[in-house]
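worker-3 :: picked site-specific DNA-methyltransferase (adenine-specific)
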Amino acid sequence: MNKANLKAYAPQARLDFIAAVSARANLLGISIQGVAPAETRGDVAIIEGREWPKKVLAQRQKLIARIEKEGFSQTIEAVTYTWFNRFVALRFMELHDYLAHGCRVLSNRAGGQPEVLSRAAELDLPGLPVDRIRDMQLAGNQDNELYKLLIVAQCNELSRVMPFLFERIDDESELLLPDNLLRTDSVIARLIAGVPEEDWAQIESIGWLYQFYISERKDEVIGKVVETADIPAATQLFTPNWIVKYLVQNSVGRLWLEANPESALAQGLDYYLPPAAQVPEAQADLDRLVRVRIAEDGVALNPESITIFDPACGSGHMLVEAYELLKAIYLERGYRPRDIPRLILEKNLYGLDIDERAVQLASFALLMKARADDRRLLDAPLKLNICAVQDSVDTDDALIANIILDAAVQIDRGESSGSAHLFGGDGVTDHAHSSGLQAEDLRMLVRFFRHGKAFGSLLIPPVELVEKLSTLSAVLDQVESDGNALAKQYSHELRQYYLRPAQLLAGTYDAVIANPPYMNSGGMNAILKAFAQAEFPDSKLDLFSMFIERGFRWCKETGFNCMVTMQSWMFLSSFETMREKILANRTIASLVQIGFNSFPEINSKVAQACTFCIAAVPIRHHVAQYVDLNTAPQSSDKDEVFRKRTAAMVFSVDQTEFGTIPGSPIAYWASDRFRELFASGRTIEDIAFSKQGLATGENGRFIRLWHEVSIGKIGLSMDSRAEAKASGKKWFPHLKGGAFRRWYGNFETVVNWEDDGREVRAFGTENGGRARSRAQNVEFYFKPGITWSDLTSTFFGSRQVPQGFIINTVGPSLFAKSGHSLDGLLGYTNSRVFQRIVDVSLQGLHYNNGVIGSRPYVPPTHVEKVRALERELVAISRRDWDAYEGSWEFPGHPCASAEARSLDNLEAAWNAWAQAKSADVRAMLALEESNNQFFIDAYGLNDEISPTVSEEHITLVRPDRVKDAQRFVSYAIGCMMGRYSLDEPGLIYAHAGGEGFDPTRYASFAADADGILPTMDLPWFDDDGAQRIREFVGALWGVERADENLEWLAQSLGPKSDEAPEETIRRYVADSFFRDHVQVYKKRPVYWLFSSGRQGAFQALVYMHRYNERTLARLRSEYVVPLSTKLVARLELLDKDAAAASSSSSRSKLQKQIDALRKKHAELLSFDEKLRHYADMRIQIDLDDGVKVNYAKFGELLADSKTVTGGSDD
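worker-3 :: tokens ->
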């Protein structure tokens, strides 16, 4: 199975199916805008002038009623997935030859039209008389209509054994079956072409197709507050096969092996973790539980009694895998192979889900799995135990209950329940049914599912309902058999929609196996959030944790709760109560911490999972098996890592030991010595304050990247709030986390703290409201300390902070307490010892200040050694940070420094710098390992932590010829704009409006007179960017060496074949520089690209800090208007050349140039008109508003406006 094919096909298929179904609805006069009237004329219906068979009106009315209830889009989506699922099922069945007639319904083995068309008269499908088929074939023009009838008839035939997927069609589904299904671009043709036959070999392809089918909808709703209807799309995730095998083998497999110690099945269970050696007390409890379970069946464990429940079954992956193991168990017990499939489906496997689409596919997948083992399986209907949880919020429970109970009482009394009682009879519900069942019991069942789609399997049936389930079942049986028509219908619906799910929810099982939905409380809607708080107070923070807690209620005393979930519940303090209850009242049998790359299909570092099997009862001093896959490289194949695990990755631990660490994290790797660190009681907070800082309430209003504002308004290196206030500055450096980085850096943002934060502190209170901001711990503002990023998906990294910064909630910091020093603490928090310590409680994601402050810390006795290490490491990291334009201390590009200019050329300068950078990386690697060893020795952890540092953890930028060449061009353009100068280090001009610009500071290489730099594909102007790069390298190493330096630069940027160096540089400046600039400056560029459009007739960079209200007029008069004149002259010349061309090929070549230039000229004229309009407006910008606001003022004049002005400010 090639998942790439499925991934490419399914999302587009959803859109194609929706379009086809919508088009069919539109033909029927139904659209999102409304419903057209219909009228009847004899035997036909007329809708918008089109004739239809009269029976269409009843189906159409059902469709209209459904749309009124559910909405147009949701109804179309539902019908769409119904037909998608059916076509997918038919495709699988025809390729595996599972259709009774042996014909292909969707395709033809020899190519051409589907086989059923030519053999239609032989098929004997229900509701399709042979004479009608022959009449349509003889007509010669009814193939499309006949084919639709054949598909409907085939679905109706399959409804006998698969009513869940092929419910008998005589409704809006038939009405909306797409047209033109025989065309080569139909949804069926695309299904056949999009998924090659070999990709249908395994039933798992069905699950993957569905996962990819909903992927775009998932992307649309994820990260938002999710409506009930979107919960399936937001939470479903297909489980990697190896995890499914682990779950099944360590639950069902373990049960069988413990009950049958001599079983040979263990040899084939590659993902089974055999129980560790136990102390006698624990082993005795384990043996007792095995005996209790066997006793349920008699003298031996009966395969028919083993029950497996997946409460979030999705498309059935877990149940399909369980089928395989159960089949092996039955075979080992000696059952006849042909009897096994039906037994497994009807007795062993149970599943629930809120997504009816997924339930359809899960049921189908199981049937197909069983059909492969029993060719007669589909001859008779089966009773599958998989169903969807429904909503009853719009159901009239009183009416339904009375009609059913009325019929039941009539039957009970031996009275007729025929047509005379079609609508409820004569009110005999006042009399009791002999079973004691009352109307209120039926209503209770319906009301229990009032919010079924929102709560799903988390619903807990009340005791009074559970006690009535068997009686309800018997009464519904009775009414379905002998009741009147309406009562039969309601009884059937009540059983299917409410009784069956309630029975599954109330059941207990040997194994609960699931990949539950993941959704934190921030994504829950109000109804779901209230339910979580009321029913699952210990696990309410996420759906997955609520499922863990709910899972134990489904377990028998001897059962296992087995899931794959996020690993956060193992460590985070927010799950502490839940975790401690599990450790006290349940028993971990085995657990695998997967960590990074848990779900390769979503490529997410955030979705770090664990998978586990937990026994439902406590067993004192039980030793469980734990496997650590998280220490493997992040991108590694975790399936392979698990199968090739070493002894060092496997830990045998008594879970009572977890309680020795505060919060009881599942720190299975912690040694006795390691746990002693926590027992010492000494923490970071003994010597340092751990503080969060400012929450602005609206970052887009109060926070900027430092390069967005005037450098003159930024107050740097302030030592106190008083000095900051007295300075009169508006913006001050702000610690806001950032990417994983150690020792120094990530100083990117500034915050509006003018007048001691007057505006931000008052934010929200302007009209007597409540403050939206939170200026906390202000006494630590501007103090030196140690900071880190609160949110990260990798490792903990701390950084030295000099004085002058304001802390943020996501950039918390440590500050020395009176009488204490931070010396040694930076080294400690960047050591492998500390990483291991924070992993105990955090494992990535949020490193909040409270947890960091409470971590164990014993100040080093030889502080001078670690202080020296810190000093060197900070110096290297600072040198690295300041070597790039992102730093306000950037002195200039290293290849343009005085030292670089003393070398022969640009190549030599880069080589020297690259060697120095590589030396820094090697030095930092050695210093970090020394730092690690220092703390390993200090804490006595030599036997369990290695000082070795992987080079990927060294947070320095590596030399990269391509990127460094791009940075060199960026610096050159900065010098052209006047931002930098070859004569002085650092930032030269970054104020506002060009005020105070001093041309004399650019003697070696002159800055542009107006801060406007043309960047076209041809040298129309002397001061264009590509031309000036030649001047720039000439100023550095002499004009006579310009060619060799341009050659090296062009080679670095990536030349095309037969492209001269200056052409390569020009192409980069014209086509790629701005894109790179936007990326480097984090979507807040300082050089703005004014562009005429796709033809590239005109484009020029304008330096934001030098822009003023006259800039657009100058842009037009000095560049756009003259360029128009040049283009006209060029066109006239080309016209003459074309007229005088001696050959047709020359003339043709010239004509192409003329056509291209005319398009450019037309674009330029249009741009000039827009530019004139904006120039007349004399637009002013206020740098304090930020790039996002100011860039938007120029509309279509600027390139990549959506990139710059869109997105979040956080």
